[in-house]
Amino acid sequence: MSKKIKCVIFDLDGVITETSDQHFEAWQHLAKQLGITLEPSFEEKLKGISRLESLEIILKEHNKQDDYTDKEKTELTDIKNEYYRKLLQGFTEKNINQGVIRLLEYLKTNNIFLALGSASKNSPFILEALQIGQYFDYIVNPVGKRSKPAPDIFLDAAQHFNLSTDTCIGIEDAVAGISAINNSGMLSIGIGDKTILSHADVVYQDVAHLDYNEFKTILDGEYL
Predict the structure, then answer these.
(1) Catalytic status, residue 201
(2) Average pLDDT, integer, range 158-169
(3) Which of 11, 152, 156, 173 is an active site residue?
(4) Catalytic residue check, 11
(5) pTM score, two decimals?
(6) Which residue among the candidates 13, 152, 156, 173 is catalytic per the annotation?
(7) Pairing of strands 138-139, 202-204
(8) Residue spans in the chain of domains classed CATH 1.10.150.240
(9) Which fold has domain 7-17+93-219?
């Protein structure tokens, strides 16, 4: 990279907070109503993608993709989301992942634009519960955009600030999310297992283990 970073785009679940358990519990709750059993191993297939695409994957896995109309599928995702939001009612700032506040404050101190690039329509609701909405300059609206691994969400953030993609980086924990960042032309930072996120440019075990010396070289455009 040769240009200084001007914007960092965060995924929400798995990076800023952990809602994957609640997501999957809500999917299991819905699946049970449909006569489907979702094994824990299936959770990884649903990370980083939209509600409707997640439902399609579940239905296809059990040969039920043609059992429902598009309208009925939308209604099913609404049922899942209502249950999911009930599970999130107890969320507070205590649910912010360790190291996140330090990173957000570090970036704001360095005059970096911050955007939230989540596939979840619940992002504003969750940020409000976590009480960190003030850190973000822009929240991407996922409605009408192709889901990750398509780059739409990350490109939207760059376009909002009128920035070229080589001055932005994305931070993700999901395979599809890292692919979306890479497809956008941005540098990708993975949070999680290096073997799973091997296609990311840089991987940290979690936000708390971020190497700030290395991260500064990334922001300064000196990372090779």
Answers:
(1) no
(2) 97
(3) 11
(4) yes
(5) 0.84
(6) 13
(7) unpaired
(8) 20-87
(9) Rossmann fold (3.40.50)
